Amino acid sequence: YSLQSAGLYFGGSSPEVSTHVFSMGVQTVLLYGCETVKLNKKCLSRLSTVQGNLVKAMLGLRRSSRTSPLLQSLRIKKADTAIHIQGANLLSSALCHYSIASDFYSHLIFNCSSHCIRGTLVKRCKTFFGAYNMNLLSYCFSSSYKKSCLKKLNSPTWGAGVIDSIQFLCANYD
Hints:
The chain is mostly helical. 66% of the residues lie in helices and 0% in strands. The chain contains 9 helices and no strands.
């Protein structure tokens, strides 16, 4: 909230514009490199808290506003989901371009037991995709499957009424 005077607050702009600025600029910087390290639950919780506070500050809402419905209605990925998607994209890029990394990750995926890959990017991606009943390898190699997965992850679970309510709140809050 102290950054509002430095230009973080976009008063008068639509929630869509603020969301786009947040997704492209602020969230990218906030989560830069997080996919390459294993974060514990405390770190993920702290990232989620900071993410929620930044979104509310950008929209000019109070700190006490509920974050989960706000993120879902604005279609902003939660910090942990965004980190897992970034990790899957990194893995996809490593597998699709021939290099020593592609050989290494291919070996981990096809030849190693789950005990051997514990804590690695491969294990984190497999666990995340398994939770959503999606196939990691199809995500890495099929652009159409990748689009359908991202659409599934981006679709809000809240109804259109919640989105309208938040847009009204943002437009009429002083």
